[in-house]
Amino acid sequence: MSVFYMSFADDERGGFQGALVMEAPTLERALRASHALGINPGGEVLSIEHDTPEDIAHLETLFPRDKWFRLLFRDEIPDPVGPDGKPKKARARS
């Protein structure tokens, strides 16, 4: 089972529409489940699959499980930019 981070955007509706974190066997199943749950805001989707225990554990530090399976808005998403305005360094893989 994988965990998918999905970000939705629609230029005609002002850009960013929200993000989801969902556990599913495939991206297609995650998208179908988001529609069935009524939490898919539509638009284009950018997805990142997390499929190793280490990646999933790291994702849980950013998005605790109580934020999974619901539409997240901009203020609920960790900022990838540090206070100095530069991108935060990616976590080192071991």
Radius of gyration: 14 Å
Number of helices: 2
Spatial arrangement of strands, main beta sheet: 2-1-3
| Largest sheet data | 3 strands, antiparallel
How many domain units?
Answer: 1
Question: How would you sum up this structure in a few lines?
Answer:
With 94 residues, the protein is an alpha+beta fold. Helices cover 21% and strands 28% of the residues.
Describe the fold and architecture.
The chain is an alpha+beta fold. It has one domain. The chain is 21% helix and 28% strand. The protein is built from 2 helices and 3 strands. The chain has a 3-stranded antiparallel beta sheet. The protein is globular, with a radius of gyration of 14 Å.
Entry keywords:
94 residues; three-stranded antiparallel β-sheet; alpha+beta
Indicate the topology.
Layout lengths: L1 E9 L4 E10 L2 H10 L7 E7 L2 H10 L32
Antiparallel strand pairs: 1-2, 1-3
